[in-house]
């Protein structure tokens, strides 16, 4: 069976073959840590985690590298505006360093709550200033750098293939010039190093051969991917917004310095949206994060399940209703799994069907359909458990670690339950539904089975999320 992945570079699904026989190198652009991650950001990391798990299922060792952007990302991707970290510092009164530390920790905690596998390397931009300076010096030696009053810029006009990943219309961009060029020569040129403003003491700044300042946003990824994976590695990932600017610039830098193409495959996750036109963003009003889910007694793993119901290149509009439906499906799966005995053997037919789907550019919605067909089949319970276990190595729902809550049912909850049982026997479905919502608000999910109501504790802090 062979794995095929959609590569943004070639705009096609092509068979995956690793550059080196033993280890697959995978670099994923990580968070800018000036605030919490929202669930849109997390959709991208879930997709990357599934990709990693599918690679592992195909027998590859994966060297997964994730960076933490804690300097250099300006409020505008056109190298203007304030550094997001310094802006965060003004907002909260803490130092930029303290903010970076706090949100890095918050991010890693979200990462674990979603059962994302730990990367081989987490790398911070501020821990790699020397590597970035050395990389810029190489680009300079190759003749792609010019200097302005406020920094060092990459001259994109020197590269014929610049913007290829995004199929950028450079002539159009240059002619349109809607963005103020400032001292830049071309609309697509970007900062490699920015000087600290005269008379201003930045919180994060370093000496360099060109003057005191800080690195541009894109150079960290070229420098750190080269350090941890080599200059030519297998897979580079990120959200779709990175194609036109950030990844195009990473490619430009690496090609200028090393003459090599950076990554063999480029994979990009489609944005989580709120409706047909609204993307979830850190600056937008609808900022939903994992804590917002816990506040509603929704287990973060339910969000992971929701992500699996859409293809990573497809649309996913977020609604609370769809998240609750995902939560119900997840809990149903957990309960079934927990009830089935261990010691069975895999059902080879189902495993094969599942693998065909995940190997076809990570078709998780179809893989989930295979899963539900399995669950509803009349195979022996031990076989069901063993097969589901094998699927979960890719899905990452942590079924094996979940234990039904042993918590005693509090009196007030029991009163609501009794009331609901009464409503059901009166066939008052509206009241029964209302009571179900009330119970959920209290952190109890109720299901109706043949033998009456079944209760599951769904508070976000339960054991289910530990790995
Ligand atoms: P940032 O922390 O803004 O640097 O973004 C971290 C990651 O989240 C990047 O890979 C972005 O492409 C991705 N991202 C940002 N917004 C969304 C969204 N609404 N849906 C999915 N991914 C997103
Ligand atoms: Zn990057």
Helix and strand topology:
Elements: E1 4-7, E2 12-15, E3 23-28, H1 39-57, E4 61-68, E5 74-76, E6 80-83, H2 84-92, H3 96-113, E7 121-124, H4 129-141, E8 145-147, E9 151-154, H5 170-176, E10 190-195, E11 213-215, H6 219-229, E12 232-239, H7 243-258, E13 262-269, E14 272-273, H8 290-295, H9 300-308, E15 316-317, H10 320-339, H11 348-359, H12 364-376, H13 381-395, H14 411-425, H15 429-441, E16 444-449, E17 452-457
Parallel strand pairs: 3-4, 3-12, 4-7, 12-13, 14-15
Antiparallel strand pairs: 1-2, 5-6, 8-9, 9-10, 10-11, 16-17
Helix pairs in contact: 1-9, 2-3, 4-6, 4-7, 6-7, 9-10, 11-12, 11-13, 12-13, 14-15
Could you please describe the fold and organization of this structure?
This protein is 42% helix and 17% strand. The protein is globular and about 80 Å long. The strands form six sheets. Strands 7-4-3-12-13 form a five-stranded parallel beta sheet. Strands 8-9-10-11 form a four-stranded antiparallel beta sheet, covered by helices on one side. The protein has three domains: 266 residues, Rossmann fold; 112 residues, no CATH class; 56 residues, no CATH class. The C terminus is likely disordered. It contains 15 helices and 17 strands. With 467 residues, the protein is α/β, with parallel strands linked by helices. The structure holds adenosine monophosphate (AMP) and zinc ion. The site of zinc ion (ZN) has 4 residues, from α7. Adenosine monophosphate (AMP) binds next to α1 and β12.
Write a concise synopsis of the structure shown:
With 467 residues, the chain is α/β, with parallel strands linked by helices.
């Amino acid at each position: 069976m062979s794995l095929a992945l959609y590569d943004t570079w070639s705009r096609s699904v092509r068979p995956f073959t690793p550059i080196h026989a033993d280890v697959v190198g995978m670099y994923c652009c990580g968070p800018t840590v000036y605030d919490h991650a929202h669930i849109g950001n997390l959709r991208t990391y879930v997709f990357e985690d599934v990709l990693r798990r599918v690679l592992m299922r195909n027998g590859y060792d994966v060297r997964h590298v994730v960076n933490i952007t804690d300097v250099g990302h300006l409020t505008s991707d056109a190298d203007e505006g304030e550094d997001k970290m310094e802006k965060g510092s003004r907002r909260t009164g803490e130092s930029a360093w303290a903010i970076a530390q706090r949100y890095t920790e918050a991010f890693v905690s979200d990462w674990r709550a979603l059962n994302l596998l730990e990367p081989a390397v987490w790398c911070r931009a501020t821990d790699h200033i020397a590597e970035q300076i050395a990389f810029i010096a190489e680009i300079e030696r190759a003749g792609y750098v010019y200097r302005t009053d406020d920094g060092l810029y990459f001259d994109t006009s020197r590269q014929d293939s610049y913007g290829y990943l995004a199929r950028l219309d450079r002539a159009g961009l240059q002619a349109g010039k809607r963005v103020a060029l400032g001292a830049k020569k071309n609309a697509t040129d970007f900062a490699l190093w920015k000087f600290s403003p005269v008379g201003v003491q930045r919180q994060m700044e370093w000496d360099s051969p060109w003057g005191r300042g800080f690195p541009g946003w894109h150079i960290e990824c070229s420098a750190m991917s080269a350090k941890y994976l080599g200059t030519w590695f297998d897979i580079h990932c990120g959200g779709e917004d990175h194609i036109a600017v950030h990844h195009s610039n990473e490619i430009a830098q690496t090609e200028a310095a090393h003459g090599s193409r950076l990554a063999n495959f480029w994979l990009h996750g489609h944005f989580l949206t709120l409706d047909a036109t609204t993307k979830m963003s850190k600056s937008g009003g609808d900022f939903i994060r994992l804590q917002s889910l816990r506040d509603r007694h929704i287990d973060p793993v339910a969000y992971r399940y929701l992500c699996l119901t859409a293809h990573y290149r497809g649309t996913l509009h977020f609604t609370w209703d769809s998240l609750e439906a995902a939560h119900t499906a997840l809990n149903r799966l957990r309960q079934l799994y927990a009830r089935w005995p261990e010691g069975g053997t895999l059902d080879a037919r189902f495993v094969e069907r599942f693998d065909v789907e995940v190997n076809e550019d990570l078709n998780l919605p179809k893989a989930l359909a295979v899963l539900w067909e399995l669950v509803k089949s009349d195979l022996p319970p031990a076989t069901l458990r063993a097969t589901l276990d094998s699927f979960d190595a890719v899905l990452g729902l942590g079924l094996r670690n979940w234990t039904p809550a042993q918590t005693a049912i509090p009196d007030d909850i029991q009163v609501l339950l009794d009331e609901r049982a009464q409503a059901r026997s009166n066939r008052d479905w509206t009241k029964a539904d209302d009571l179900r919502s009330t119970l959920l608000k209290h952190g109890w999910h109720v299901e109706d089975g043949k033998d009456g109501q079944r209760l599951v504790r769904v508070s976000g802090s339960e054991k289910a999320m530990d790995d």
